[in-house]
UniProtKB/TrEMBL annotation:
<dbReference type="Pfam" id="PF01230">
    <property type="entry name" value="HIT"/>
</dbReference>
<feature type="active site" description="Tele-AMP-histidine intermediate">
    <location>
        <position position="95"/>
    </location>
</feature>
<feature type="domain" description="HIT">
    <location>
        <begin position="5"/>
        <end position="108"/>
    </location>
</feature>
<protein>
    <submittedName>
        <fullName>Histidine triad (HIT) family protein</fullName>
    </submittedName>
</protein>
<dbReference type="InterPro" id="IPR036265">
    <property type="entry name" value="HIT-like_sf"/>
</dbReference>
<dbReference type="InterPro" id="IPR019808">
    <property type="entry name" value="Histidine_triad_CS"/>
</dbReference>
<dbReference type="GO" id="GO:0009117">
    <property type="term" value="P:nucleotide metabolic process"/>
</dbReference>
<feature type="short sequence motif" description="Histidine triad motif">
    <location>
        <begin position="93"/>
        <end position="97"/>
    </location>
</feature>
<dbReference type="InterPro" id="IPR011146">
    <property type="entry name" value="HIT-like"/>
</dbReference>
<dbReference type="GO" id="GO:0003824">
    <property type="term" value="F:catalytic activity"/>
</dbReference>
<dbReference type="InterPro" id="IPR001310">
    <property type="entry name" value="Histidine_triad_HIT"/>
</dbReference>
Length: 135
């Protein structure tokens, strides 16, 4: 078993402010939240990326329930739900950020620059390359 920070939290070896825990996932407050109430949902089993998670359904049921709970529990207008895979992944253990959001809360757009395709043909070529990799 890996000994990353989240595995240590799951094992009870490192403190965390727990929100919920069951046989599939553990949810706790981020120690450096974007906004107060920012929750991390991590699978109980150690996997590094989404591609490594064999059964995504039960995990994302927990993510969905937590997003709903953040909205209802904190009485916020919505949530920002995000995940990094390897690049910008601060801990090498799959985790989903659920950040409470309200209009005019100061968080603007995405955290990365945007671009455009040069043509419809270029966009279609990207779609085709990605689509071929699905099988």
């Amino acid at each position: 078993m890996s000994t990353d920070l989240f595995c240590e939290i799951i094992a009870g070896e490192r403190p965390a402010t727990m929100v919920h825990s069951d046989e599939v996932a553990v949810s706790f407050l981020d120690v450096r939240p974007v906004f107060k109430g920012h929750v991390l949902v991590v699978p109980r089993i150690h996997v590094e990326t989404l591609a490594d998670l064999a059964d995504v359904g039960p995990f994302f049921e927990r993510v969905q329930a937590m997003a709903r709970a953040v909205e209802e529990g904190l009485q916020v207008a919505g949530t920002f739900v995000a995940m990094n895979n390897r690049v910008s992944q601060s801990v090498p253990h799959l985790h989903v950020h659920i950040v409470p959001r309200n209009k005019k809360d100061g968080l603007r757009g995405f955290f990365w620059p945007r671009t455009t395709y040069d043509s419809t043909e270029e966009a279609e070529s990207y779609a085709e390359l990605i689509g071929k990799s699905l099988s």
